[in-house]
Amino acid sequence: MTLADRLAAVGVTAGADPLEAWLALRAAEGSRATIIDLYELAAAPGGLAAHELPLTVRRGLTRQAVPHIWPGFAVTDGSERPAVPLVVVDYDPAWPRIYARWRHRVAAALGPAALGIEHVGSTSVPGLAAKPIIDVQISVGDLADEPRYVPGLEGAGLVLRSRDELHRYLRPPADRPREVHVHVCAAGSQWERDHLLFRDYLRADPASRRRYAEAKRANVLRWSDDSWAYTEAKTGVVLDILEQANDWAKATGWAPPAH
Fold first, then answer.
1. Neighbour count for residue 239 (Cβ, 10 Å)
2. Tell me, what's the pLDDT at 15?
3. Same domain? 100 vs 189
4. C-alpha atoms less than 13 angstroms from C-alpha of 25 in its C-beta half-sphere
5. Is residue 79 part of a domain?
6. pLDDT tens across 37-69, in order?
7. At 225, is the pLDDT very low, low, confident or very high (cuts 50, 70, 90)?
8. Which residues pair with 117 in a beta bridge?
9. Boundary residue ending a domain (69, 85, 120)
10. Three-state secondary structure of 67-116
11. Count of domains observed in the chain
């Protein structure tokens, strides 16, 4: 179904304000209405494709959209890093060792405040192409209680980049290699479950692993200068795989670790 068809299905008329049209689409379709759709809506009057919008325009649209994607989203002052082009590379057997090093570091920093520490994201799936950045997921009892975990993670060499209602995101400061992203979520939350299920299903299902790798490689070619768009462009594939993963979880009895 084309974007025009999708808009017509939710009663959006031609010429509507791009953000208002996108919000109507988002209300009807949820996460399947992505920032790429907003880019398309903004680009169409000028006869451009979504990726042909200037980066400054795309960033402005993203700032408008992100609070609707991640409620409560805010970045922290002083956490900026220079932008570098995104790359997707073949699986590297060194990634589990890098994760193990960071796991030891954050476990020592947080002690019992960390109810769970897991390697998630594409670098956690053997054989899967990925951006060469390790994703570490930390589960805590109370996400809002930042004094319980943020100072410890800062002492381990990270800075708090952003917060929203679902998680906190930390990464190394600008003067250190960007080899890790740390995501703090609430133990027992949907965020925690989805990331662990997605990882475990990709580990178990070669066809889904290939499909996801193809989506990553195709989208990084178009969106290497736009990390939000790169992530959002994979949304349809991710949601499809998650649906399959939920069926697999029911069939196999999969469940996230107990805390």
1. 12
2. 84
3. yes
4. 28
5. no
6. 999 999 999 999 999 999 999 999 999 999 999
7. very high
8. 138
9. 69
10. HHHCCCCEECCCCCCCCCCCCCECCCCCHHHHHHHHHHHHHHHHHHHCCE
11. 2
